[in-house]
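Feature request disguised as a bug: please show the residue count (317) next to Sulfotransferase in the output. Example input:
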Amino acid sequence: MAEEEKLSFTKAIEDAGASITRFPLIPVRGVPLMSHIANNLDSVWAFRPDPSDLLIATYPKAGTTWTQEIVDLLLHNGDAEACKRAPTPVRSPFLEISSPPPIPSGLDLLKEMDPPRIIKTHLPFQLVPSGFWESKCKVIYVARNAKDNLVSYYYFDSMNLTQPEPGPWEGYIHKFMQGELSWGSWYDHVKGYWVEREKKNILYLFYEDMKENPQREVERIMRYLDLSVSDEVISRIVDLTSFKTMKENPMTNYSCIPAPVFDQSISPFMRKGEVGDWTNHFTPEQSKMFDEDYQKQMKDVKIPFRTLIYGFGGFTI
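Example output, currently without the count:
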């Protein structure tokens, strides 16, 4: 079944052929979104989730696929074979994605699934369909420190041939700082879910915590989902969701997306998965400029991000 679903999903993308392009950004309530998403957002907002549905929300390249796989494995008691039934974007549809036919939209895929469903979104809090809050769905939000998130997004925009051309690294830093990328401002995104986390019962996770102690964070997710699995299963899930294992797993490494869309010869979808890789990209001058702007943009909220991890400590900005 997994191979059939993978082939049909991949074939739909290949059949779209000439329709694949770098889509322009259109602002929606001040948030730049790719045109094919912006033009379909009314349908997304009309989506009515089941109360049993789970939403995994992130800014792009903040640990989305990692969290999707952890959750799927928890729901299947660590059964690796069950989680190979289909690629990640089929098992856990991308809510707002809408591409040229015959590629199925996120809503198309969700219509074919019975609840409970694992649903992915990159929408900032204010653009999430109200049905998720009205139905009191569980929501997991994963945040990654700004500098590493920026680096990862830069490489992703280079290889994802539907996203706007990233341009040179020096200019991309400014685009990130000014919120001119797909799905808008990182600053607004992480703050939006943070200030609502208690009122909306959002489990707010940090990528750096997940890297530092994956077992602890998998257990946090398990408790939030009101599940109970054995220590042995938790350990198995930690192993199955290591970066190395997921990078080699065709169900999670996005090899199902053909090169006209994700050109992994430019950069692999799963590139490094490290904390602190930003130190290999920012010059001292760029880092100083970025830090000064960061302090201004984050002065109204105290979110405990870490840009480096030293053992069980960390350097915080």
